[in-house]
Design a protein that fits this description.
Length: 248
Amino acid sequence: MYDSIKNVKTLRTKVTALERIDKKFSVANSEYLLQTHPRKLYFINREKKLEILYNSELYGHKALVKPHVFPYMTLNLDPTGNLMRKNQHYSINELGYGFIGNSIALTLSKDKNGINNFSYKGTTHKNGYSCHLLEYENINYSYIDYTVQERETASSISSKLCVNDYLLRDKNDLLNDFGYLKKGSVLKVPNLYCKKAILFIDENTMLPISISLYDDSGLFESYDFSGLQINKPFTENDFKRENKNYGF
């Protein structure tokens, strides 16, 4: 699976995201086009009437964001800023399989028993795909103290410690705090990326079709993919605001 993820150059997919935000679950159905190198992205959530376009070669390191509700203006926003990350687990920088592969690698690197905590459950069907079913669980999942250093954010700390950004935020009441934290303050941070994970891996592409992650309170996020198209070439117009199919 990890090798298959590294070989993904382009991706078209639909994804249903279920995320726990402040003890409640939020569901989002989206579609996106993604080129991995150089990274380009077109994202649309038709229910929320939201379009996002990221193409640093044309528009710098800001994302074009078009909310099809008042005030109907196309905005240039920082993908890691408050407005684009509010009330969701990840930024657009984590869309795609690369982040998933890295997260699994981080889980193995943090877990002393590593691969031994994975169990193979055989084959089954999920989202119209024939899949391998894998489960991961570590009963030693817990939280430890961490003292904030100079000019650190919740995201920089989670990256440094190889832990889940959302779980760190959730435990410390920082869900929508993306700025620098007070030096010397003490945070509770998870010792592992997650306590439990359930993965459905497509037998043909060896890519994840469904991923569910759990902490000590239960499920905190799941992502289901469908309509996958891998390494199908894009045209330059696919990542331009002038595309007649886009609303920018």
